[in-house]
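To illustrate the input format used throughout this study, we show a single complete record. The first block contains the structure-token representation of the backbone; no residue identities are included at this stage. The design step must infer an amino acid for every position from geometry alone.
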């Protein structure tokens, strides 16, 4: 399995970043790739949500490895016989935070689709992380 990702620094504290990232129902306010997201409960291991992308594609996602204040993973079906797992992390960085997002491909065709889509999908994390940083810096 190969992982593809991006990260950046923000002046916002890890606590401020986490307060925004832990609320998937409001991701569409700062993530231009998401039209809407509806959680079936609070963000916790095993929690699920429906997410609609800006292209109108609806995905069922499942959360795992939720570490309050630090990060989480969410998984969803990808191309045939492939699962996407997104890892989202925040950590202290000087007076602010370092925020990171990555994608790992798993399943029988993960090598094929990872090679085809990995770098391209990781590039989409740049505006996502920029949006998160802007939102966190507004009140932080």
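Output of the design step:
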């Amino acid at each position: 399995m190969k992982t593809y990702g991006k990260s950046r620094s923000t002046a916002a504290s890890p606590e401020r970043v986490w307060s925004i990232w832990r609320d998937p129902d409001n991701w569409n306010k700062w993530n231009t790739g998401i039209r809407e997201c509806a959680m079936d409960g609070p963000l916790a291991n095993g929690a699920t949500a429906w997410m609609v992308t800006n292209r109108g594609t609806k995905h069922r996602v499942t959360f795992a490895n939720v570490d309050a204040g630090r990060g989480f993973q969410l998984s969803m079906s990808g191309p045939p016989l492939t699962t996407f797992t997104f890892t989202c992390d925040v950590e202290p960085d000087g007076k602010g935070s370092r925020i990171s997002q990555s994608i790992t491909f798993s399943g029988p065709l993960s090598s094929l689709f990872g090679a085809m889509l990995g770098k391209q999908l990781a590039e989409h994390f740049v505006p996502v992380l920029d949006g998160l940083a802007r939102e966190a810096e507004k009140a932080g």
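Structural context for interpreting the output: The chain has one domain: 3-139. The helical segments are 14-21, 110-123, 125-139.
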